[in-house]
Amino acid sequence: MLSKGDDYPLHQTAEPIAFSGTDRNFYDRYFFNGYNPDGSGFFALAFGIYPHLDVADAHFCAIRDGQQHCLHASRELGMERMDLTVGPIRIEVIEPLRKLRIIVAEHNGIAADIVFTGRAFPLEEPRFTRRIGPRAFMDYTRMTQNGRYEGWIEIDGRREAIQRACTGTRDRSWGVRPIGVADAQPHTGARPTGFFWQWTPMNFARHSVFFHLNADGDGPPWNLRAAVVPDGAGPHGWFETSAARMEAPLIQGTRWPARGELTIDTADGPLSVTLEPLGRFYMRGLGYTSPKWNHGLHHGALDVEREDFAIAAQDPARVDNFHVQIPCRAVLGGKEQGVGVFEQLVLGINTRLDFKTPGDVAK
After folding, report:
1. Which of 31, 183, 285, 325 would disulfide-bridge 70, Cβ 3.0–4.6 Å?
2. Distance between CA 358 and CA 319 in Å, rounded?
3. Is residue 207 one of the residues assigned to a domain?
4. At 252, phi and psi to the nearest 5?
5. Is the pTM of this model over 0.90?
6. 193-235: pLDDT as tens digits
């Protein structure tokens, strides 16, 4: 099966681009988020392609007046991976690794036209590889890049401009992680008690700070890295280390962080970053842990749906509300002001947090 990608020098194997190895969980995803310097005006997009499920899906969300407005779209891929359109949602790569455009053609009251420009060369995170017994649970690579946005978002006829002061993060990830309908076949391999994830990209005036941590429900982290990236840096023009730690107490009755205290060890001594919440965004609006719009599910030839909900009214004890991004005021070294997000997902049992059952929340 030949596709448009076969006319580009992108091949990694002797097969056409339409085939991505043999693991049915292979995926290829774009992610964007953006926010104003005070954390307001939050928006986000997720766009995924699942070659072996022959599905593509996309989700766009914007927060207005305490409401999270979401547009979900899914279509059959037809084995064509170079078409970055799902229903009304489209991505254009204007300049690879630097400038991209998000377009949402008006659908049921939601529309947008937004351009992202990177502040430095994208950061390649350490490869995420984790097995459950003999089975690859995760095996993927992600590049992350902070940047600035310009454009507009329109909700129900009210258009708001996005000024260049709006910053945020975009990432690209590809590889293997659970997608589509869960595999019902059990296996004998030892299963982790839970899943723990933190990710905190932060924007300051002249540089960006990144931190992420992946761990099971017990034991040490299996993927951890912090980095400080100056504006304009090239592929190697930054500081990075695995010597970093995050202290993040939880809000009572939730699995959400109340705040964050990040410490990064450097040759000049510890570098501290504090994170104070300015709002909340539910990742299920982008398909993550969504019962209906989870990534890779088949919805037929094309399906598009709008979803709206009040942020403050959501039940924090619902599993599909555990995964959040928290816009935060960030303070670097006790004086430099910035803004970023604190993403956290805690699933299952977690001995460090005293979660004895998958439904426990902080006391």
Report:
1. 285
2. 9
3. yes
4. -55, 135
5. yes
6. 799 999 999 999 999 999 999 999 988 999 999 999 999 999 9
